[in-house]
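I hope you will forgive my troubling you with a question about protein structure. I am sending you one protein, given as its amino acid sequence and as whole-number tokens for its backbone shapes. Thank you for your consideration; the sequence and its tokens are set out here:
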Amino acid sequence: MRSGFTHEALFYEDSAQFLEETVSFIREGLAAKEPVMVALAGPRIGMLRAELRADAEPVEFVDMESLGRNPGRILPAWREFVERAAADGLSTRGIGEPAWPGRSPEELTECEHHESLLNLAFADAAGFTLLCPYDAAALDAEVLDAARRHHPVVVESDGLHPSDRYVEPGVGEALLGARLAPAPGDADTLSFGEGDLPAIRDFVRERAAAAGIERDRLADVVLAVNELATNSMRHGGGTGILRAWLDQRALHCEVEDAGRVVDPLLGRTRPTPSQDYGRGLWLVHQLCDLFQLRSGPAGTIARISMARA
């Protein structure tokens, strides 16, 4: 069994290079009897299946457009995959493409955050190699530069080599302290304290209905904000500010309080039945299309987005 975590960024220029590198990577893992998980958008999965033919049978394929709609859901899936194999004494390898053309700037920022957190989450992993493809012909230069900062190894047309821009993930404040763009000045605002959860739910429900959010997803966004406000009451000083606003794409809600989150991985591990912390943030990650968390000495902002119909 190999030891350690190897995190590689693959910069591909076309489908031929993508297939050449990923198929070779998968077959190398299969030859070593390693479990392989591939998380890509549906069309990419189809390409790989066609190229691998019978070799595709033992590979676990996951639709990244579903899993990674909110990038905060990706890391727990890798963690569970690695832990299952480690229980059997096996090394693992995976392919994951969280950043694809068409992602919003906010989503791409959370993809960068996710890639950095992987280095922290799997620092002590027992034999996990993860290859992250990036469409170098279609993604902006800023996205590709961020990939170089968050992957210690890069794979390009001239081969595999260390990234000369890699930045260690650091500690909690470095990962959670980045700023979010401020909420718009005309956002609807509600200050809340103990006993205000019914008013909070009504506030969100009205705005989600006005945004055309479908019934089931409306319930999800109400529950997500309820969890965030509950965290503010329990861990953020008992009070907070809720803001909500619409744009053409989504309903956005954020909860701001005076508390501080120091563990950047909080909410990115499936809680155990006996666990008494992290459940709320885990649930928010599962319910929403995007979840952004920032925290520092001045307090915490937890922002969710839910796409309009």
Q: What stands out?
A: The mean pLDDT is 94. The CA atoms of residues 18 and 78 lie 21 Å apart.
